Amino acid sequence: MNRCALPAVALLAVTLAMPSVARADDDEASASPANNEAAIALNKVLQVLQQDPSSASDACVDALKELHKTQDIVATDEARSKDQDLAVARDVLESDYEDATQICGADARTLCRTSSGKLPKLPPACAAIHAQP
To answer: pTM of the predicted model, to two decimals?
Structure first.
């Protein structure tokens, strides 16, 4: 069992429950289609890993922690003001989504290859990540 299995379970549950990055409001800078696509891709990967959270690597858990830290920064900046730091924070958040998707995606694809027949909910979740570009 992965030494970070319990934190992975908590992070996977929290990440799956989080809202998407982009909000549908009047500020076009905050409504980035790339952010929505990144959130959707990561959620598909996490749906696979949620079937067996112990298969999430330390690198995946660390990437999710970094993503959450950046989400907090963006939320704080959005609440405070619409300044230049917010644009930078959003760029970093998009990058964090891409990193987490790539790192956790490797764990998810490994789980799909090795355990697809053992977990009944895994095949549909695996099909969803294989269908994404």
So the answer is: 0.65
